[in-house]
């Protein structure tokens, strides 16, 4: 820790406190996650090991947060990450009005590029949510918090726990107790995040697992073996029953969303996991190629950490020589004498020098050609 200077506290996670720090030698700003071990014999927590393993398995990618170093500290260890200003949850929470369609497209596009990269490297994140999507000062989105991530087994024979993912973004098969699943749980979460960006609030805000299923059923309708044949094989399928409920059209749930947005959202929020659209295919959807196009990261809201200072705008001085169509042309012409000190000697011809001198003596822009050319 001697090589870092702590600048402040960012927040606290399940396994440690996160600090903002500066590298003493390089001056680089980083985020330090301190993970404490309650007892040495307990070893390193599994979630911390998974986060380190997952981030070390994949090469650097602009849509995945970078793990810069891991080193021991006291009765624990420290993970050093690249510093990110805020997260998508804060952006949505502090937006004074719903995000513009171009901004929603930009965030979703960056998220899908990160998910595509993870899935191509056989990593399933299992906890995608706005709070785990970090945002840089330049508007760049990066996937973070790989504490629940696992290296995925393509043969489908491996058993996993169903107690993963934050409840509001948890796929239906997990709510029904599935132990065998794949990257499709991430794709459901992407759909929930997309819906939240379009809606300005979570689509399925359940307070417990049963209510979470009820929230999903209210919109997508009651799942049946005809729609989702594999549902009968899930461990908790017969433990609870719901009355028949018809699905609600997504255009009624999100009346302000475009037809293309609703079509893509409908490809994520599907009961059968294998029918959900892959992240790589979603990037080719017409949604991203119809107006308005995705905004550039520089056009996205400036994120702020909770309790951080509100950024102030710094407008420049008024442009006293702006052109205005309702004013006479001569009043909008630039006085050549104003730019004379900034022109290197040798670039101005004799005739132009004479014109500058005359304009200076007149005290006003000259008529005719404002910048004669030899």
From TrEMBL:
Protein kinase domain span: 4-288
Q: InterPro entries given for it? A: CDK (IPR050108), CDK20-like_STKc (IPR048002), Kinase-like_dom_sf (IPR011009), Prot_kinase_dom (IPR000719), Protein_kinase_ATP_BS (IPR017441), Ser/Thr_kinase_AS (IPR008271)
Residues annotated as binding ATP are 33
Q: Which domain of life is it from?
A: Eukaryota
Q: Name one GO molecular function term.
A: ATP binding
The UniProt record lists the EC number as: 2.7.11.22
Which biological processes are named by the entry's GO terms?
Answer: cell division
Instruction: From the UniProt entry, list the residue stretches annotated as the region Disordered.
Output: 298-317, 354-374
Q: Where in the cell is it found?
A: Cell projection, Cilium; Cytoplasm; Nucleus
Q: Which PANTHER family match?
A: CELL DIVISION PROTEIN KINASE (PTHR24056), CYCLIN-DEPENDENT KINASE 20 (PTHR24056:SF171)
Under what name is this protein listed? Answer: Cyclin-dependent kinase 20
Provide the species name. Answer: Heterocephalus glaber
């Amino acid at each position: 820790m001697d090589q870092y200077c702590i600048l402040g506290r960012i927040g606290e996670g399940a396994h440690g406190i996160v600090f903002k720090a500066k590298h003493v030698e390089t001056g680089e700003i980083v985020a330090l996650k301190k993970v404490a071990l309650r007892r040495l014999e307990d070893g390193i927590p599994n979630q911390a090991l998974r986060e380190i393993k997952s981030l070390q398995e994949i090469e650097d990618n602009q849509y995945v947060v970078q793990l810069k170093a891991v080193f021991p500290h006291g009765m624990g260890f420290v993970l050093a990450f690249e510093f990110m200003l805020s997260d998508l949850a804060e952006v949505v929470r502090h937006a004074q009005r719903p995000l513009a369609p171009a901004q929603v497209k930009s965030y979703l596009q960056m998220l899908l590029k990160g998910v595509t990269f993870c899935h191509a490297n056989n990593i399933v994140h299992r906890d995608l949510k706005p709070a785990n999507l970090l945002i840089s000062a330049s508007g760049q989105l990066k996937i973070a918090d790989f504490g629940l991530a696992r290296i995925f087994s393509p043969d489908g024979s491996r058993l996993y726990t169903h107690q993963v993912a934050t409840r509001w973004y948890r796929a239906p098969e997990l709510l029904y107790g599935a132990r065998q699943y794949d990257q499709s749980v991430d794709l459901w979460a992407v759909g929930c995040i997309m819906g939240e960006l379009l809606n300005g609030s979570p689509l399925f805000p359940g307070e417990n697992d049963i209510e979470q299923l009820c929230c999903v059923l209210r919109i997508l309708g009651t799942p049946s073996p005809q729609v989702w044949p594999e549902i009968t094989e899930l461990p908790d399928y017969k433990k609870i029953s719901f009355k028949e409920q018809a699905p609600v059209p997504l255009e009624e749930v999100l009346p302000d969303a475009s037809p293309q947005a609703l079509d893509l959202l409908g490809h994520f929020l599907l009961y059968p996991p294998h029918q959900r659209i892959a992240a790589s295919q979603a990037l080719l959807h017409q949604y991203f190629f119809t107006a308005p196009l995705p905004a550039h990261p520089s056009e996205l809201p400036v994120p702020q950490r909770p309790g951080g200072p509100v950024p102030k705008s710094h407008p420049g001085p008024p442009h006293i020589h702006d052109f205005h169509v309702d004013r006479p042309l001569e009043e909008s012409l630039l006085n050549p004498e104003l730019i004379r000190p900034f022109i290197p000697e040798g670039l101005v011809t004799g005739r132009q020098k004479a014109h500058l001198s005359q304009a200076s003596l007149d005290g006003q822009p000259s008529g005719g050609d404002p910048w004669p050319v030899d």
